[in-house]
Structures are given as structure tokens and as C-alpha cells.
Design brief:
about 190 residues, mainly alpha, Rna Polymerase Sigma Factor, Chain: A, Arc Repressor Mutant, subunit A, about 0% strand
Length: about 190
């Protein structure tokens, strides 16, 4: 299912997905703007959400909620940062809310209990996946993981990360450096 269909139902318009809509801040209806934002940022917002919630289905739900909130609050967009930064801020806040929720906590505990009884084959597959750098990044503490993901995977500049997370540039740099050091030590400890 295309993400446009859910958002499109908010304003009674179907989007075919065939044409590319350029994002312009001037002389553009909210419907065209949200369609352009979805075209341009859906995948990256979903990937960002996954780095927090570590579940693709839940990341999809969070992404839909992000664009619904974006549509409903377009009139509150101040233009101080780009749309990407604004969407990421909404996504990060929504993910953090999700992580705090009881539902998520319950399912995480349930999932960890299920992993304890995993078969030998599953254990082998788990060890193999841990070799992958992205898995190591996901195991980092949130404060390091979010900075590394935003800088390296989403290719945001330090200044954009500073605005997005609401912290000093020196804090961003420190967390990035410490996160890389943790990744390095994790890679050295990882079985070959």
C-alpha cells in the first residue's frame, strides 16, 4: 500500500504516484506540499524510525503518524529549518514516545524472553547478523546511536543535528566521537 493513500484520505485526494512533485514553500497547496514531502522523505523517515524502535512494522506506523502530524501542523511550520529537519524532529519525538509506552515495553520483554529459547540455528543466525555494522550501531546507547545515524546514515551536518536534537554542537561532536569509539570496541570484540 502506498503511503499517499492514507495521507490522501485526510483531504479526499488520491495520489497516483506517477509524477514527482517539487517541494516549494511558496504558491503551493498543503495537499501538493504533503505529497511532495511524502515522495521525498517517506523512506528516510521510516529508516530513522526503525533505528529507534527496531521493528519495521512499528517504524511504518510511526512514519504514517509523522506525516499525518506534519499535514495537520503545516500551518505551524516556521521555516527555521528545512522540511527534512522538521520531519526528523517529529519522527524522533514520536519514536521516543513509542519507546516510553507500555505496549512497546511489554513487547520488548516478550521478545527477549522468546530469544532465550531460540534454536541453535537461530543463535547462529543472530551471531552472523551481529557482524554487520548496522546491527552494531543499533546496539549503541540511544544518545550515541541517534547522532551516528543522523550524521552517517542520514547525512545531516553537525549544525542540523544540533538543531534537531536541541543540544550544543560540542555535545554532538562528543557523542559522535564516543559512539565511534564504542563501535570500534564492539567490532573488536565481535566473533569472526
Amino acid at each position: 500500500m502506498k503511503p499517499y493513500l492514507l495521507i490522501g484520505s485526510l483531504y479526499g485526494k488520491k495520489y497516483s504516484g506517477g509524477e514527482k512533485v517539487e517541494i516549494q514553500q511558496v504558491h503551493q497547496s498543503n495537499e501538493d506540499l504533503i505529497t511532495g514531502l511524502i515522495d521525498q522523505y517517506w523512506v528516510s523517515v521510516k529508516k530513522l524510525a526503525f533505528t529507534y524502535v527496531k521493528d519495521w512494522g512499528l517504524a511504518e506506523d510511526v512514519t504514517q503518524e509523522v506525516f499525518i502530524r506534519c499535514y495537520r501542523n503545516l500551518d505551524q511550520y516556521r521555516g527555521e529549518a528545512g522540511y527534512k529537519t522538521w520531519l526528523y524532529k517529529i519522527a524522533i519525538n514520536r519514536c521516543k514516545d513509542e519507546l516510553k509506552s507500555r505496549w512497546f515495553t511489554f513487547h520488548q520483554i516478550k521478545e527477549k524472553a522468546g530469544k532465550r529459547t531460540a534454536s541453535a540455528e537461530q543463535s547462529f543466525l543472530d551471531r552472523q547478523r551481529k557482524k554487520d555494522l548496522s546491527e552494531l550501531v543499533l546496539r549503541l546507547p540511544l544518545k550515541y546511536r541517534e547522532v551516528i545515524m543522523l550524521h552517517y546514515y542520514e547525512e545531516l551536518k553537525m549544525e542540523e543535528i544540533k538543531l534537531l536534537l536541541g543540544m550544543n554542537i560540542s555535545t554532538v561532536k562528543t557523542r559522535l566521537r564516543r559512539g565511534k569509539m564504542l563501535l570500534k570496541s564492539m567490532m573488536e570484540r565481535s566473533p569472526e
